[in-house]
């Protein structure tokens, strides 16, 4: 168990992908369908989960660009703007269709959220996923009642690891960053928290770009969210 003084925390910011829900299956399905709609050499590429796990976490735009550049290193050329826009439109269409169908809530998440809510802590979901997709996923997985406020990657001008989404969350909650706990799964979450001035707790099971999460600058790491105990 990890004991955390309740008197030091006024609210909790929670990441979505890799923290509350294992969404790799959704990403793989949407990306595979996306590349199948593109011209060669993209069309014949088999999207593997291990690759997506390394690329996911910095928003849909970066995910798509990273995949296209992996398939074709020449993708980054300026004349590929039209290709990216085409891929983006296909991805949006396919992700909307698969959102939540190939994903699972991690063990202990619902119990942890219920316990934090019972402890009187306001919760906000802050994710780099577009806000509409995030709300739909939370609804699909019956997590929406915990999060009256959802801040997505398109809610403010910059995404994590920039601190802007966390500072916006604190402003909306009426809390100060130093008393607002960030719970996430990656260096993106930790860097955003450090820059915002929030304490940060990471889970060991998420998507950290293929790097060990215990090497990330965080206040603590847990294997399940239910291991966090307020004292």
Topology:
Blueprint: E1 2-4, E2 11-14, E3 21-22, H1 24-36, H2 49-55, H3 60-71, H4 81-98, E4 104-105, H5 109-118, E5 123-126, H6 131-140, E6 149-151, H7 164-173, E7 180-184, H8 187-196, E8 200-203, E9 220-222, E10 228-230
Parallel strand pairs: 1-10, 2-5, 2-7, 5-6, 7-8, 8-9
Antiparallel strand pairs: 3-4
Helix pairs in contact: 1-4, 3-4
- Taken as a percent bin, the fraction of beta residues is 5-15%
Describe the oligomeric state of these chains in a short phrase. single chain
Specify the overall morphology: elongated
The separation of the N and C termini measures 11 Å
Which structural class fits the helix and strand makeup? alpha/beta
Tell me about the largest β-sheet: 6 strands, parallel
Task: Summarize the structure in words.
The protein has 231 residues and is of the alpha/beta class. It contains eight helices and ten strands. It has helices at residues 24-36, 49-55, 60-71, 81-98, 109-118, 131-140, 164-173, 187-196; strands at residues 2-4, 11-14, 21-22, 104-105, 123-126, 149-151, 180-184, 200-203, 220-222, 228-230. Strands 6-5-2-7-8-9 form a six-stranded parallel β-sheet, with helices on both faces. A two-stranded parallel sheet has the order 1-10. Helix 8 links the parallel strand 7 (180-184) and strand 8 (200-203).
